[in-house]
Write a structure and sequence with these properties.
With about 350 residues, this protein is α/β, with parallel strands linked by helices. Helix content is about 40%, strand content about 15%.
Length: about 350
């Protein structure tokens, strides 16, 4: 039985909602094309200011909203910030690093009465999020170097902040961590303990996080008179599962490393699993360092040396910068580098102890 009819078949007097106003309705009333309405409401600079005002006035009068987030057409669009994560939702919501970033971002946006639009886009158009009126600006989390969609944000002058940045886009605001000093401290400590076979397991090669840490690692070794050995280096995708196999390969080679420096706690987790499988003890048989660890409880057992990176602070910093850009401020002249702290802990020992 229809919810609008009673048991005797009589139609209920409940009022049926009026049909929603469509883009076509606004276009007809404004005597312009539908594409012009879409661009005018999205703030497209190709549409004249007069046409934008006329379309916005008609849209308000008709009660048209382009999407569920749109409000305040008089202000030029919705108070929404898009956060783009080019990873799967499953990975994102099981990664403490991503969750910390999102916590920092959402806290700032909530205080500013802005909504957060979370999008797991990969090859789709980031610019369209802004031009269609879905958001006022975009934060790209775990940005990859050379991403054409990120380059398009810069080219179309969309307010955007990258975490981390892309050296090829110097005019785009970005937030990263200062890894050089703590990485040097970690490698120097390993050299002081007598290690010379020091390996490195990093993240994706197109990640600035990975490149910065690997560069700092190589410089620290060179400063200590030990050249970096490419045979002792491996790349993963910042997951413990993917780190396990390269760790096994490094730890079973003829002249295995006595110490491994990992780009983050998730990779260190995979190294610990590989070492356990081989019967190697940390630190007696293998010294271990993570170059990216969250403050507070960690995903790996206590006592692993790590560089603490406050990803919640990074998210909050990126959100504040984006709100400034939306308000018309120029982007920072240089990337924002947040401080880090190296905590030696108990996973470091001299090599050769059995």
């Amino acid at each position: 039985m229809s919810p609008s009819a009673n048991r005797r078949g009589r139609v209920s007097s409940r009022r049926v909602p009026a049909p929603a106003v469509t883009l076509r309705d606004v276009a007809r009333a404004a005597n312009v094309a539908e594409s012009t309405v879409s661009r005018a409401l999205g703030g497209d600079p190709r549409i004249s200011a007069a046409t934008r005002r006329a379309v916005q006035q008609i849209a308000r009068r008709l009660g048209y909203a382009p999407n569920a987030f749109a409000r305040g057409l008089a202000g030029g669009g919705a108070d929404v910030v898009a956060v783009v994560i080019p990873r799967t939702a499953e990975y994102t919501f099981t990664s403490g690093f991503h969750l910390a970033l999102l916590k920092g971002i959402s806290g700032v946006l909530q205080d500013a009465d802005h909504l957060l639009l979370l999008s797991f886009l990969d090859k789709r158009d980031y610019v369209a999020l802004h031009q269609t009126g879905l958001c006022r600006g975009v934060i790209v989390v775990m940005c990859r170097i050379g991403d054409p969609q990120v380059a398009a944000l810069a080219r179309r002058r969309v307010p955007a902040v990258l975490i981390p940045g892309d050296p090829g886009l110097p005019g785009v605001a970005s937030v990263n961590f200062d890894v050089a000093t703590p990485t040097e401290h970690a490698v120097r400590r390993l050299l002081e303990l007598g290690h010379r076979r020091i390996g490195f397991i990093g993240g994706a090669p197109d990640s600035l996080f990975h490149r910065d840490r690997l560069s700092a690692f190589a410089r620290a070794l060179a400063d200590g008179g030990v050249p970096a050995d490419a045979a002792l280096q491996a790349e993963t995708n910042f997951t413990s599962t993917e780190a396990r196999e390269p760790a096994l390969a490094l730890l079973t080679c003829g002249d295995r490393p006595t110490a491994l420096v990992c780009s983050g706690d998730l990779i260190a987790q995979g190294v610990l699993a590989a070492a356990q499988r081989l019967g190697l003890r940390v630190p007696a048989d293998l010294s271990l360092v993570s170059l990216s660890a969250l403050p507070g409880p960690r995903v790996i057992p206590p006592g692993i040396a790590g560089v603490l990176c406050d990803f919640e602070q990074a998210g909050a910093t990126a959100a504040r910068q984006l709100l400034d850009l939306i308000a018309g401020a120029p982007p920072p002249a240089t990337p924002t580098l947040l401080p880090t702290v190296f905590e030696p802990a108990g996973s470091l020992a001299a090599p050769g102890i059995r």
